[in-house]
Amino acid sequence: MDLGFQDRTVVVTGGSSGIGLAAVRLLLAEGARVAFCARGAERLRAVSDDLTREFGADRVLSQAVDVLDASAVDGFAATVADTFGPVQALLTNAGQGRVSTFADTSDDDWRAELDLKYFSQINPIRAFKPALISSGQGAIVATNSLLAYQPEPHMVCTSSARAGIQSLLKSLSVELAPDIRVNSIVLGLVDSNQWQRRFDAREDPSQTRDDWYGALARRKSIPLGRLGRAEEAARALLFLASPAASYITGAHLEISGGLSRHV
C-alpha cells in the first residue's frame, strides 16, 4: 500500500533512536523528505550520516534540539522551512517515563514530568503549526502511552501527565480542524533503550535477553506474549500521518499487543 509520502516533508522529534528513528527510516523508504531532531548531538550526527549515505543528503535534515527550549524549536522550524519548505506532517515522539509512586514523587519531580510531557508537545506544535497549515494537508501524530487510559501506581506521575496530554490532543483536533488533523498512538510495552537498561540491571546476570523479555511479557499478561518492536509502533505513526488516514482526527490507535483492559 502506497501511503502517499513521496516528496512530502515530515518532521520527527526524538528521531535518533527507538520509535522515532524507526519512523524516520520508514518515511525515507516511502520517499519522504525527513527533518528530525534529538538532544544528543553526537548520536544524532552518527545516525544522520548513516541515513544520508543510504537515502541522500537532499532528503535528510537533522539538528540537535532540546524540545523543551521553545527558541531552539523555533530555530529548527525555521531551518526546516528554509531547507524543505512547507511541512505536511509532524510526529512528536520525545519523552520517557518516570518510575515513582505518589509517596516518593517530590514536587520538583511532578513539575519536571509535567513540563516534559506537555512542552515536548506544545513547543513543536506551536513552531510547526504555520508550516502545517500552509501545506494544506497538515497532520500531527503524537506518541503517547497506554498509561493515559490504564494508569499504573508505580508510574503515577507519568500516568497523570500522559492522560493530560491525551486530553490536550483531543482539544487540538477540534481547534486545528480542518487545517490540521491531530491523532496519537498509545503504547503498551515496546522494546526500547529504557527496557534494555532494565535488562542490563537484571538480578540474574545469567538470564538471557529472550528469557528476560519473555518473563516480562508473561508477568505483564500481554496476550501476544512479547514486547512490541519499534517499527511496529512507527508503522502506526506513518499511517495516521499519511493521506491514507485523511478522514481520521481526534483518534488514538493502541499498539499494545492486547495489554489494555478497558473497553
Layout: helices, strands, pairs:
Elements: E1 9-13, H1 18-29, E2 33-38, H2 41-55, E3 60-64, H3 70-84, E4 89-92, H4 107-135, E5 138-145, H5 156-175, E6 180-187, H6 193-200, H7 209-219, H8 230-241, E7 252-255
Parallel strand pairs: 1-2, 1-4, 2-3, 4-5, 5-6, 6-7
Helix pairs in contact: 1-8, 3-4, 4-5
Provide keyphrases for this structure.
263 residues, 2 domains, 8 helices, 7 strands, 46% helix, Rossmann fold, 15% strand
Task: Tell me the major beta sheet.
Answer: 7 strands, parallel
| CATH fold category name of the largest domain | Rossmann fold
- Report the total helices: 8
- At CATH level 2, the architecture of the largest domain is 3-Layer(aba) Sandwich
Across the major sheet, the strand order is 3-2-1-4-5-6-7
Number of β-strand runs:
7
In short:
The protein is 46% helix and 15% strand. It is an alpha/beta fold. It folds into 2 domains: 9-190 and 229-255, Rossmann fold; 191-227.
Describe the fold and architecture.
The chain has 263 residues and is α/β, with parallel strands linked by helices. The chain has two domains: 9-190 and 229-255, NAD(P)-binding Rossmann-like Domain (Rossmann fold); 191-227. Helix content is 46%, strand content 15%. It has a seven-stranded parallel β-sheet with strand order 3-2-1-4-5-6-7, sandwiched between helices. Helix 1 packs across helix 8 (230-241), helix 3 packs parallel to helix 4 (107-135) and helix 4 packs parallel to helix 5 (156-175). The chain starts with 8 loop residues before the first strand and ends in an 8-residue tail after the last strand.
